Known about the structure:
- The protein is built from 1 helix and 26 strands.
- It is mainly beta.
- It folds into 2 domains: 7-14 and 163-283, Jelly Rolls, CATH 2.60.120; 24-162 and 295-319, Sandwich (Jelly Rolls).
- The strands form 6 sheets. The protein has a 7-stranded antiparallel beta sheet, with no helix packed on it. A 6-stranded antiparallel beta sheet has the order 3-8-5-6-25-26, with no helix packed on it. It has a 5-stranded antiparallel beta sheet with strand order 2-9-4-7-10, with no helix packed on it.
- The longest helix has 14 residues, at 296-309.
- The chain is globular.
Amino acid sequence: MTSTHSPVLQVFELGSPWQTIDPFLFVAHHVDAYPAGNADLGPDASLDGRPLGQDFGNPSGWNMYHGTTVPGFPGHPHRGFETVTFVRSGFIDHSDSVGASARFGGGDTQWLTAGHGVVHSEMFPLLNQEDDNPLELFQIWLNLPAESKTADPHFAMLWNEDTPTVTFTDDTDRTVAVRVLAGKLDDATAPAPPPHSWASRPDTDVAIWNIDLTPGSQWTLPAAAGSGTRRVLYVYNGSPVQLGDRQVSAGHGAVVDASVPLVLAAGEGPTQILMLQGRPIGEPVASYGPFVLNDEAGIQQAFDDYRRTGFGGWPWESDSPVHAADAGRFAKYPDGTVEKR
């Protein structure tokens, strides 16, 4: 008898934030068509009428978010999970309560383990004063198991130059490029995640891949290595794509059967897909804003600890620090080590 099982288990519209699967908690895709910058690294445009501090309305193709001079997210706390921030275009200025700081973008990924508590700022400096400053980034929240929620915070940079892209050519000489941010694909292995991450365990099968399909291309997404792995594909831009027996349009996600290979077939135009996969943690989740624990008592403890300690305090003069315009891409780690790119 021929099986009628479809490898596509569910198709859903992308909301804000995107629906996701354990061990992931949250996915946000920021796309902002920022204008030229001014001397303060903010937009060289009028901010009149914007509800500064809470500007999410996208009135002219871009937002200030919680920023008032420079767009972005001034200092805010996290506990109990990790943020993985992948920047396709534009730049982020990072500063945190453990003393780390960075400017990254253009293919870089920052991986921050909040653990028992960290405060960080994520600002979007508009460095080009002569032309537009487009920004596109993903922020992904990856949960931590109970035993790691009290780990020390850890700041890591996965630089563009160290992050592999695997390019496949199909039978018609069309190409598919897969950016391997976490996990392994063929002989390509992503830079190591932080030590307490769920992704650092060899049996959790965590992978984060960005897939760029050229028009008319076809590629078979291999089956996941581990049993029990879950997988979701977000078709976030471009033409509709055929996922096995289902056509999925941009602006939709698909939960797929990770235990079987899946043919991806592009349409008349290019298509971009973000893939997340991993073995579920399978623990209770209690969340309130920036805190993700296992029960309400843990949430209350997080609030109490943050009020008492500030998760280490804030060593910066401003709650929304930005680095010098000519700082370039760099990372300064809590031990004082500096990397420049």
